[in-house]
Structures are given as structure tokens and as C-alpha cells.
Amino acid sequence: MITQAAAVRTKVLQRQGAAVALVLVVAVSWLVFPRFGSLDNLRDLALQGSFLAVIALGMTFVIITGGIDLSVGSLYALGGVLAAWGSQYGFLVALALPLLVCGAIGLVNGLLIARTNMAPFIVTLASLLFARGLLLAITDEGATTYQIAPDSAFVELGRGTVFGFGYPIFIAAVLCVLGGLVLNRTTFGQNVFATGGAEQSAILLGVPVAKTKIRVYTVSGTLAGLAGALTAAYLQSGVTVIGVGTELDAIAVVVIGGTLLTGGMGTVVGTVIGVGLIKVIQNVINQIGTLDSNYQSVVSGVFLLVVVVLQRTLRR
Amino acid sequence: MPTETSAGPVIEVAGVTKTFAGVRALDDVDFALKRGEIHALVGENGAGKSTLIKVLTGIHTPDGGRVTRNGQISTIYQEVNLVPLMSVAANLFLGREPRTRFGLIDRTRRDADAAELLRGYGITADVTSPLGTLAVGEQQMVALARAVEADADVVIMDEPTSSLEPREVETLLEVVRKLHQEGITIIYVSHRMDELYRICDTVTVLRDGRNVHSGPLEELPRIELVSLMLGRSVGEIEKHGTTAFGEDHHADTRPVLEARGLTSTPRINGVDVSIRPGEVVGLAGLLGSGRTETAKAIIGALPLDHGTVFVAGKPVPRNVKAATRAGISMLAEDRKTEGIIPNLSVRENIVLAALPRLSRFGVISRSKQDRIVDTFVKRLRIKVSSPEQKVAELSGGNQQKVLLARWLCTEPRILLLDEPTRGIDVGAKAEVQALIDELAREGLAVLLISSELDELLDGADRLVVLRDGEVAGELEGAQLTREHVLKAIAAEVMDDAASHQNRHQNSHQNSR
């Protein structure tokens, strides 16, 4: 049983902890670095964050069910390559191919996890290797980079802007709003919480636990593929070396956003804030210039640790 | 059975049999549930209650027999089967949420409905807070409300009060009565006699997978009920040697172990136990009466609200390490999960607890190990091909002896044995019993927990009878008869003075 006080503290931490940190970091950056607050920089920041946000959205669902999806980094890269290759057959193929293939791999993840009771860690680790291998196989070990014609409609998807803000930002925003609604206001969303909160109880309460798990991994794979497609459109090519370790970034932002790694509790808003926090820190470190950009990882790591330690101690 | 069957039974079970891995869990069971009654389902551990419930609810398909259901069944388990991290309202309406016209969950209405509904069950807590923040009793009430709201005709309550405070029990029983008035049929599983007699109309007693009695509860005296559960006739009084225990042991006068006022709400409340060297003290009582908890409290494995354990007059700090150092060892009830390490050898399993004594600067002397293992294998007559044989390959009885050896080689002064002969065959059982006898004669103080009355009556010099976490009586000498034990368990106190004194002492110690 959780005590009343601990629950309240968890709630506060979950809702506000990351948000407070984000506000502080943004405020300090704004004051210290004159270029930080410029419209150009903010647009760039949002665009960079939007790709990760799409992946992390799927990860949020997976982690709330008490699972983990390690395959998203590889699927992200694979999605990009498939989109770039498919773009020669037109916009629809370029968009549908990565969604279908990555979605299918996510579906297989889900089926294996839900039906055979294998650990999500192992199953998705296998598909991480599988997808990365597949990617290398279709690109001659990364030697072939498929280019997207600069004037194609597909490139517009990644590079088009409204008031200077890139399309991917709006796509990610719409998806996150939808994701939040699905999570909090639909039966599927409630099933996600119930599955991660107490799986055995959920089964006894009539929650379709297996179906719920299959769905979240399918969603996660599909979203990773979409993020890959958007990135390819933005870069005008299917870059093969991206996505290494992206699954860990996604897990990190979800957890920093207050979603419990053990499942049962979490918010999409928190994940978005987590993405913001990581991207702002990255941006600031880049602006310092003299600081090695690898420190971004150091800071993210410290943040993650602090959040996890807080989650654990505050729940006592 | 009474004949006022106005409507047909809600659930009827005829000749149901269910076997698991060769073990017959239900054997030709008949069971009928009349509409609107509160039906008590009782029986000792392993009597088949859970299996019957699962057959009733359709989780298990019986191997033979017929099940007829004329209503929707909902089960409330002992452990609340809800999601602690989700809000109270979300738990209450999971899967049946009110919707807005866009098909989304209408949270405002859900929360309002939940608050109003729960008020009827005496819960005024904030329905938007996580369920886990509520007290266990309130959580149980939410589970109950959920079941009733799901239009259940029959609610099965499996030990609903086992982890509740007395005040919460009252509220729960109140709600049960209310549901009864609303015409809901209830199956009430509990070991608590008081509750059963207060609210139930009918009782079914299961023993060893059979229905040994069905009928109106008030016509059945408590002692009859207990004897039906345990399978002993009340008239059977004299002791007879069905077990391998010898005569009573010569006991020293000063107790080596004294536990005073052990309290861990709600499991045990003010339990006193003392054991003299060379004495075997038995802990009797029904399942859930606090036997295992008492032993765990003595060895420091159960967090206590009050109470102190003294070994040879000195208080022992409340942790297992200190208790072990003071000379207390415990043989846990469940060999598989709390003792044996199946893939290690007999030797490794035996010396595990004694390793700190056998090692110098972290290096473990192999020759010392071999000597000790050899001694115990011979002394306890453990049948092994070699000390290097894996424990998993041994029979249950020999596994139990390996565990016994493990604790004996720490040279304890006090040995706590929780169901030492459960699940081992008759021959091995007699050997383990003889061994307990022998150890006591050598001066060890033994606390023996057993569900088998014969084992306790023959093996123990003195019996402490527990009921609902409190000492219901202490029996020794001529009082060591089935009748006395059953009466103590059934709360028909015959030695009023003694029991009163007991309770007086407990309350005195609690107030410290």
C-alpha cells in the first residue's frame, strides 16, 4: 500500500517535477545565452525535439504497461531508409512503407511478449538487432544512402513550415494530444494503466491484458517508423547511422517525465516535458561551444538518475 | 437442508470432481446456493475451497459432474484485486465508464458517480486519489461496490476480513448485511467463527476435497463445526499413538525463550509464548490464527508494533541476524520457497547457515564442512548417494531433514518448526517426529507448529492455542486432549479464569 503522503508527493513529482526543472533551465538559458531565446533557435529546438517526441510517445504507452521497447532506435533508422527508398514510388509509398514494416515488427514484438510471456527486454533486444541487421543488409552495410528527390512532396513533409515552424512539430503535437486523449479518455488507455499497475488484478477485472500489450508495441513500432520517415524527409535521405541509442534517449525522457518505469502511472505531458528538457540542455551545451557536446549525455544521465532516485525514495 | 426453496438455486453443483497432477482437489462435491442466502464455505487449507470457488466461477472446468449457474457471479478475493495506482473512481468503473457524446470517457461524471456510490458504502475518501492510498478495508469495500455495480447476483467473498482492522470488519459485515437485504446472494469464506455465526445462514464444510456437511449454520454448534473441519470426532478424547513421538520430555524450569506481548496488527495481538530447555511447545489454531506469524515474530522476520523476545532472560533485537546469534533457528513452512536451494548439493545446503562459523577470513574450510555434513547425514539418517547429490533429487522427507540439519549445525538453543511434516510421506513423517523428540531430549527448546492435531497432542508437552491472532488458551498435562483444543479453537472457553488471566496479561503488556 502507498501512503497518502507518498502518493501526493509522487503526483507532485510526476506532474510538476520535470516541468519545474524545464522552466528553470529555460529561464536560466534565456538570461545567460542571448541567442537561446531567438525565434530561429526555438524553431530549431522544437523541430529537433519533435522526432524524439514521436518515438517517446509510443514508449510512454509501452512503459505504462510495465514493458520496455528497445527496438525503437533501430526501427527509427530502418523507417528512414525505407521511406527514402520508397520515395521513388511516390509520397504514399514513402510514408506507408516505413509505417507498415515498423508496425509489423512492433506487432511481432507484442505478440511474442503477450502470448509467450517472454521478457519485453529480450524480445525487443532481438528486434533491435534484427531491424539494424535488416537495415544494413538493404543498404550494402550502410554504403548505399537512398536520396529523396529535393522537389518531391515527401520532402515537403519534413521541410515544410508554417510561420517558420516545421511540419514535424505540428505532426508531433497532434499525435501527442491524440495520445493523451487515448491514454486518459478511452478504454484502451485505462487498460494500459491497469495492465501496468497490477497485471494479475487487471486480468481478474476483465481487462484484455494480452491485446493491450500487443497494441502498445504495435503503436510504438509504428511511431518509431513514422519518426524515421519524418527524419528522412527532413534530411532528404535515408541516413543509416542514426538511431543508435535512440531507444535509450526515449526511455530516459519518458522516465524523466515522471512515468514510472515499473508501469501503471505516467503522462504524455510529462514525456513532452522530458523531451523539452533533454533538447534544451543539448541546445545550451552546443551554445557554450567550448564544452564538449558529449557532456549533453552526461547531464541527461544525471537528470535521469535524479528522477529515478526521487521516484523511488518518494514512494516509500 | 431446509425446504423453503421458493426460487431454484442460483448455483448448483452436482458430483463435481477436479484433479490436479494426480491430486484430487474436489471429490464428488455437491453444493447448492439458494437465492438470497449468505452461505459460509469453510475448511482447512487444502480442503478444496479455492478450487470449488474457481469451478463455481468457471475459471476451472471440472473433470466430472455438473455445474448450473442462474446468475452473474463476482468474486472478491482476500488480496484486493484492483489497481492501486489508478484512481478509486477509475477502478470502480474500469471497463464500464460513462461516456461523453464523442465517445470519450466522461471523467467528471465518472468521479461524481463514484463518490455518490461509495458514500453508500461508508467511504468518503477522494475518489480521484489513487486506490492504493485508501486503507485495506476501504479498498475491499471498493472491490465489493464494483462487484455489486457490475450487476452481480452472487458475490463470493474469499477471506475478506483476514487483513482488516476490527473496526473495518464491522463496516464490512454491515455492508454484507445490506447487500443481503437487497437480495444479493453471498458465499462467505472465512475461518473466523464469530463472523460466520453473526452473518451466515447456511454452511458448507469441505475436507480433503469432499463436502462433509451442508446445512443451516445456527443448528450447528461451534465445536461441531471445528471438528468437522479438522476431521476429528468430538467424543474422541483419549490419546493414542498414531505418531512417532515418545513420552513427555523432562523440562528445565527456567524458560530459555520468552516472547511477551508480540503484536503485529492485524495478524497477531499480544501473543505470549515461553519455552523451557528440553520442552516442545505446540502452537495450535486454525489457518490464519497467527501461528506462522508468531514464529516469524520470534525470529525477527515480522515487523512488530509491540512485544519483546527474551532468550535466557536477555532481550533480543528484532532482526533475524540477532535472533540467530541468540540461538534461535526456524524451519519455514514452505520448503521450496523459503529454504531449499534445489540445484545445490546436500553438503552446500546443509552448511549454508553455518558458513560464517566455518570460514576464516572468508575462506571456507572444506574439511570442517565435510565433517559436519557427515555427522548430520548419519545422525538424521538422511538418505543420499553422496553429500554431493543435488537436493532437488531427494524425497520431500529427506529435503526436510537437510533443512533441519542446516539449522542444527548452527547449534541453536531454540528451534521453531513450522509444519515440519507437511507434504512428506508417512514413513519420513514418523522419522522427523522421532527426531524432534530426540532433539528436545537433548535439551533443545522446540516450538512446533502443525495443522495436525495428533502431531501436536503427541509431540508437544504444552500447547498454546491461538485464535484470531490472540492466545485463546494454554493447555498442558491432562488438558492435552482433542476436546480441550477444539473447544479453545471454537472459543467455547471452559477454563474461564485461566483465559481471563491470559487476556489480562496481554492487555497489560500492550499498554507498555
Spans of at least 5 consecutive residues with low confidence of chain A = none
| CATH C-level class of the largest domain in chain B | Alpha Beta
Estimated share of beta-strand residues of chain A: under 5%
What share of the residues of chain B lie within helices? 25-40%
- The appropriate CATH architecture of chain A is Orthogonal Bundle
* Order of adjacent strands in the largest pleated sheet of chain A: 1-2
Helical segment tally of chain B?
A: 18
Are there runs of chain B of 5+ residues with pLDDT below 50, and where? 1-6, 234-242, 493-512
Main location (chain A): membrane
Pfam family, one (chain A): BPD_transp_2
GO molecular function (chain A): transmembrane transporter activity
Subcellular location (chain A): Cell membrane
Write the layout of secondary structure elements.
The complex is a heterodimer of chains A (316) and B (512).
Chain A (H helix, E strand, L loop, with lengths): L3 H29 L6 H26 L7 H15 L4 H26 L3 H19 L14 H7 L1 E2 L2 E2 H19 L1 H11 L1 H6 L4 H27 L10 H11 L11 H21 L6 H21 L1
Antiparallel strand pairs in A: 1-2
Chain B lengths: L10 E10 L2 E11 L4 E5 L6 H9 L6 E6 L3 E4 L11 H6 L13 H13 L16 H14 L4 E5 L7 H16 L3 E5 L3 H7 L2 E6 L2 E7 L5 H9 L26 E8 L3 E8 L4 E5 L6 H9 L6 E6 L2 E3 L3 H6 L2 E4 L3 H4 L7 H6 L3 H4 E2 L2 E2 L1 H14 L16 H13 L5 E5 L7 H16 L3 E5 L3 H7 L2 E6 L2 E7 L5 H8 L6 H15 L2
Parallel strand pairs in B: 3-7, 3-8, 5-6, 6-7, 12-19, 12-20, 15-18, 18-19
Antiparallel strand pairs in B: 1-2, 1-4, 8-9, 10-11, 10-13, 13-14, 16-17, 20-21
List keywords for this structure.
heterodimer; A: 316 residues; mainly alpha; ABC transporter involved in vitamin B12 uptake, BtuC; two-stranded antiparallel ribbon; 2 strands; 75% helix; B: 512 residues; Rossmann fold; 6-stranded mixed β-sheet; 21 strands; globular; disordered N terminus; disordered C terminus; ABC_transporter-like_ATP-bd (chain B)
